[in-house]
Amino acid sequence: MKLLSFLFTSSIGRKVLMAVTGLSLVAFLLVHAGINACIFFNDGGETFNHAAEFMAHNWLIRSAEIGLFLGLLLHIVQGLSLTASNNQKRSSKYGASAGNANSKWYSRSMGILGSLLLIFLVMHLKHFWVVSRFTDAIQETAGSTLFDEMVVVFADPLPVFVYVIGCISLAYHLLHGFQSAFQSLGINHPAYSPIIKSIGAGFSIIVPLVFAAMPIAMHLGWIK
Amino acid sequence: MSKLMKLNLKVWRQKNTNSAGNFEEYKVDASPDMSFLEMFDVLNEQLIETGKEPVAFDHDCREGICGMCSMVIDGRPHGPKQGVTTCQLHMRSFNDGDTITVEPWRADGFPVIKDLTVNRSAFDRIIAAGGFISTNAGNAVDANSVLIPKDVADEAFEAATCIGCGACVSACKNASAMLFVGAKVTQLSKLPQGKPERETRVVAMVNQMDAEGFGACTNTGACAAECPKQIPLSVIANLNREYIGAKMNGK
Ligand code: HEM
Ligand code: SF4
Ligand code: FES
């Protein structure tokens, strides 16, 4: 255990943990976006419900879910505590600042973007994860599916609004975070870094767009 | 001789480490051919002539190699130009009638001594913790007896151009010293002479860096953008790599 304590105590170790958990979340998002995009088949959620059923009953997926949740928790706690400690390193503030001259605003706002994501996540998990895992509301026997739940939730404009804000925050969080994670793990190379940056930018734009399209399309009744 | 520029200065005045400090406004006429420090010399002569306390600021070589001239100018360490120190910045980079804000590096790891001078001995303690190599005394070995590939020598040399000025810390939102430490660790870890202490060095230097009150790295890139020697962000990736490797070996 002493071997890994640096992941919680040293400045570099703490960023290694941020990067590893962050990249696991990125991998999860890819699967999540892929499965949910099945609603765009516009088949009354049939394909989507099939995929969701598979994910819910496969033991491998369910074990990975525990790891994912632990990782998410570590990412959130470490991210917020790291931001708090970093903010304490300059007691006397600058009179003039020119942040945009040397860095991107979203790279300096990872804590705020992450906090916006957290607000979205609490609402999101309550809507779908808690309902499907811990209540009997969504069961084939009860005649209700995850797709039906989406239809109900996104009929209300407030969740649609919060989800879209969540997706925008995710886009900017990843626009910096994706490539940053590789740098934190020590990967920076003239041949590979441009490729990593391009993939990161593509991922950060496409995945949140696909996610944002879901509540919007459902709210507008485009998907039946 | 070119026409004098009329400048308004807002300069940070602070009596000592423990006092609060505030901005004072001054007017200076400067030639566009002066360096920023020469403009400050003119200001200080004005202040002395009128019986006021001159502004304390650090400087030594005035040619971009000692790393002493720590000034944050309009929010940017070493001013608006890339790849130059304050002493190499010319007044022609500004316009007649400009108001220029000048303040010290601000970081808890660099306490202000007076006005624009800060105490950067934290960097010395980080170097003392591991920024050295061990060598046997005796006759100098023939320089060509240790073969070093050209690309490795170039990388080490690029990192070695760091002058320890601290602009990276002052630019970083976390007041992180990662670019400085990355440069030093890269320079020493690349070369065969630095190999015996490679793993103990990186751990000792990072521990000292954390103990001095510098923040962690968010990879915003502000440090490299403001570094007068244009040390690249890749030295931080190298530092991370060296550190992770050492930790994996139980160091
Ligand atoms: C839910 C709340 C979240 C919070 C509070 C949060 C917070 C943070 C913070 C503060 C950082 C920057 C740490 C630093 O460099 O100082 C960060 C980095 C990162 N986050 Fe998040 N985050 C959240 C969710 C997510 C999600 C959902 C993903 C992925 C899908 C993600 C992926 C990343 C990545 C890849 C990094 C870069 C790691 C690095 O720079 O090494 N985060 N997060
Ligand atoms: S890395 Fe650049 S900014 Fe930082 S101390 Fe060295 S020369 Fe100065
Ligand atoms: S005075 Fe030496 S670098 Fe500026």
Describe the secondary-structure layout:
The complex is a heterodimer of chains A (224) and B (251).
Chain A: H1 6-9, H2 11-36, H3 46-57, H4 59-86, H5 110-134, H6 146-153, H7 157-184, H8 193-219
Chain B: E1 5-13, E2 22-30, H1 36-49, E3 72-73, E4 76-77, E5 99-103, E6 112-114, E7 117-118, H2 121-130, H3 150-160, H4 167-171, H5 178-190, H6 198-211, H7 222-226, H8 234-248
Parallel strand pairs in B: 1-5
Antiparallel strand pairs in B: 1-2, 3-4, 3-5, 6-7
Helix pairs in contact in B: 2-6, 3-5, 5-6, 5-8, 6-8
The site of FE2/S2 (inorganic) cluster has 13 residues of chain B, from loops.
User: What is the number of helices of chain A?
Assistant: 8
The largest pleated sheet of chain B is described as:
5 strands, mixed
CATH domain class of the largest domain in chain B: Mainly Alpha
C-alpha end-to-end distance of chain A: 52 Å
- Mean pLDDT of chain A, as a whole number? 91
The span between the termini of chain B is 62 Å
Tell me the overall shape of chain B: elongated
For the biggest sheet of chain A, the summary is: none
The CATH topology of the largest domain in chain B corresponds to: Fumarate Reductase Iron-sulfur Protein, Chain B, domain 2
Succession of helices and strands of chain B: EEHEEEEEHHHHHHH
Q: What level of helicity do the residues of chain B show?
A: 25-40%
**Oligomeric description of these chains:** heterodimer
The tally of strands of chain B reads: 7
Strand content of chain A: under 5%
Gross morphology of chain A: globular
Low-pLDDT runs of 5+ residues of chain B are none
Read across the widest sheet of chain B, the strand sequence of neighbours is 2-1-5-3-4
